[in-house]
């Protein structure tokens, strides 16, 4: 440094740098949630109740409504409302529906969260700390980044994520609170598909009409874990699956025999196929495997 003015200028810049770095760390601390992977697939994050108590939830983009285990309901101040019928790929059953006052994800809060009470003993058998499943009725309030490499979910504050990444924006085709993504599959035939983006699925799932359009050969059934236990489901191999600019070759697909009783497009697209993904609910798009923005 040639003089005191230069030294002062350098110190000033350094102090600004430290302040910005500290602010960035505070922002990250407020919006970043570390997660653990259960069974190699399920994202488990810690949420905070209105009482300030922490609970572990499975983040599931393929579920429309948040689910809570009955053993946890009272601690979340659950207020019952009515009973509804829940339909999955393998079963249908009645569950109690109600609300809890609020849930916090870092600095993000959703009030009067509608939840279903459902026995989660299968999930809790994998991890006894799991209290519930976080569905789209909570997640749709936020933009967020799921980073499997760093094991972090970042709930966006303003445009702090969008301003630091780039990549192809794939439009969301919302249906009954589910995120549908346009895809193309090729086998003996090719077909345009609309798949539910599902962070709770461990495999690509193609419903019967989709597999028929592809003329997809079936092979040995695979054992799948569902809410009611373990079941064998037919499987096949998709030679090519294209999602935005991402291409997957020789990918295994589960091929359920029966059609579900709810709208879920042509099947399920597991988020574990990607290293990271940015979901922008506000503007309606997803960026798969985003890159750090230059400059």
State mean pLDDT (0 to 100 scale): 85
- Beginning-to-end CA distance, first to last residue: 27 Å
> How many helices in DSSP terms?
5
The CATH superfamily of the largest domain is identified as Acid Proteases
Percentage of helical residues?
10-25%
CATH class of the largest domain: Mainly Beta
* Largest sheet report: 6 strands, antiparallel
Low-confidence stretches: 1-30, 225-229
CATH topology of the largest domain: Cathepsin D, subunit A, domain 1
Radius of gyration: 22 Å
Percentage of residues in strands: over 45%
Total strands: the figure is 23
How many structural domains are formed by the residues?
2
Q: What CATH architecture label of the largest domain applies?
A: Beta Barrel
User: Taking strands numbered 1, 2, ... along the chain, how are they ordered across the largest sheet?
Assistant: 1-11-10-21-22-13
Instruction: Tell me the overall shape.
Output: globular
Alpha-beta classification: alpha+beta
Short description:
This protein is α+β, with helices and mostly antiparallel strands and 295 residues long.
Q: Can you put this structure into words, describing what you see?
A:
The protein has five helices and 23 strands. It has two domains: about 30-165, Acid Proteases (Cathepsin D, subunit A, domain 1, Beta Barrel); about 170-290, Acid Proteases (Cathepsin D, subunit A, domain 1). It has a six-stranded antiparallel sheet with strand order 1-11-10-21-22-13. The chain is α+β, with helices and mostly antiparallel strands and about 300 residues long. Mean pLDDT is about 85; it is low at about 1-30 and about 225-230. It is globular and about 55 Å long. Strand 21 and strand 22 (about 285-290) form a beta hairpin.
């Amino acid at each position: 440094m040639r003089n005191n003015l230069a030294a002062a200028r350098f110190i000033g810049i350094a102090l600004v740098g430290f302040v910005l770095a500290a602010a960035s760390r505070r922002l990250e601390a407020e919006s970043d949630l570390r997660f653990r992977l259960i069974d190699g697939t399920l994202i488990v994050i810690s949420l905070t109740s209105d009482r300030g108590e922490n609970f572990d939830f499975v983040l599931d983009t393929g579920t429309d409504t948040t689910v809570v285990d009955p053993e946890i309901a009272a601690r979340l101040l659950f207020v019952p409302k009515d009973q509804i019928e829940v339909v999955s790929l393998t079963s249908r059953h009645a569950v109690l529906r109600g609300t809890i006052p609020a849930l916090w994800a870092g600095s993000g809060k959703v009030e009067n969260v509608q939840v279903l009470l459902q026995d989660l003993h299968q999930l809790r058998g994998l991890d006894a700390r799991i209290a519930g499943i976080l569905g789209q009725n909570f997640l749709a309030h936020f933009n967020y980044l799921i980073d499997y490499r760093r094991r972090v979910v970042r709930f966006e504050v303003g445009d702090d994520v969008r301003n630091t990444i780039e990549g192809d924006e794939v439009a969301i085709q919302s249906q009954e609170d589910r995120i549908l993504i346009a895809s193309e599959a090729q086998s003996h035939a090719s077909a345009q598909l609309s798949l539910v983006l599902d962070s709770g699925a461990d495999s690509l799932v193609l419903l019967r009409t989709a597999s028929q359009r592809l003329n997809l050969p079936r092979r040995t059934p695979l054992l799948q874990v569902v809410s009611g236990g373990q079941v064998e489901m037919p499987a096949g191999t998709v030679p090519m699956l294209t999602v935005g600019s991402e291409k997957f070759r020789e990918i295994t697909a589960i091929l359920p025999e029966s059609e579900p009783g709810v709208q879920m497009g042509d099947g399920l697209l597991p988020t574990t196929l990607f290293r990271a993904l940015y979901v922008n609910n506000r503007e309606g798009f997803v960026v798969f495997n985003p890159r750090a923005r230059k400059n």
